[in-house]
Prior knowledge:
Elements: H1 2-6, H2 48-69, H3 78-86, H4 90-95, H5 113-128, H6 130-137, H7 139-170, H8 180-207, H9 212-223, H10 225-237, H11 243-269, H12 274-293, H13 306-324, H14 346-368, H15 378-390
Helix pairs in contact: 2-8, 5-6, 5-7, 7-8, 8-9, 9-15, 11-14, 11-15, 12-13, 12-15, 13-14
Amino acid sequence: MVPQLFAQRRRHISPPLFGSFPRCLPPLRNARNWLPKMAHSRDTTHSMPELMTRIAVTLGVLAVYRLGTHLPLAGIDQTALANLLAGIDQAALANLGSAFTGERVSIFALGVTPIISALLVVEVVRLASERFNDWAGAAPNARRVNHYVLIGSLLLAALQGYGIATELERAKNVVNEPGPQFQLNVVATFVAGTALLVWLAALISRHGVGSGFWILLLAPYLAGLPGLALSVYEAVHSGIMSQVGLVAALAYVLIALATVAALARTLARSGMPLDRTLIWPLYIATIPAGVLAFTPWFFPDGRSAPLYLAALAVIVIGTSLAQWLRVDPRSARAETYSPRVEGVGASLIALSVMTLAAITVVPEFLTTQLGLPMLIDARLMTAIVAVALAMQNLPPSALLKSPQHLL
């Protein structure tokens, strides 16, 4: 049944949503033509001086990004805001949005959230509509889709900025001068910040090392690793978490990373795009999974209920299988002729689907049932592996002449 199901996948050339990079970095006003291209990296062998230059560019962009996260939003009493956030439960704080998760609201408080949200909408529509998937995959339409993604990203940044400004004005003594002028300033700042991140990501993809969009997505998590390690150490030292529990959590992370890396390399060598087979299915699955979290009548015990974990696994499996129906393994811009990969075996499809379900459900089980910390999210895990593979020079037989197959 499974081989018959996936034997019906489309046979046309379906280039990825993102096209190739221009010869030089375009100005910001032309960002709509290359916004999603920032998720790609060049797969070429560089000399040592050029490699050092690319590393320097990447580190420089990351330094600018980190600096922006420490530049406070204008018109806010940061001391009053820090006191306000200190008295709010962290779980409730997270529900207010990523901009409220620190002690300040910076100009980059939204991060790449508006961009990935717009891309997620495109992926959901491609998953729901075979006709749109074929249309978006055609090269002549890629530029138009890129335009839609850019406009959607800026609109989402504006909406999120307005919502954040409204919430800040409701807090007492946080905003110096509440009113339309403050709201306009917040919206303009976040829209400009999102546009700047688009340009920075493209700068990494063109002149740096790796894939700009995914690197900027992973940067906050990687920057927070020292703090996470410190909190885990304090939990073990104070007796909140046992040493056996810590070893178990670390063992799971290592085993899961090794499994995902082996699977990703196999998929890449089969000509399959890792973003559409590993990363986006998990992001799409968060939509119905989020609905499950707000259905207490089905799961009275919350996320710790075995039925909830089973439903979460079914959602991930269903999303992954549906995504496989929309994936074409053929290279869109192969520099030399490569034999067409007519399809992958049912065993590899089943293995990838079950792996995604496992790395999603197992952390939930360890957290809710055993009280172990969530060291890494499944989406971040797959993104880290994909970015690491994108930085490697795979052999020509991998059908990865174009980095779009990775990201």
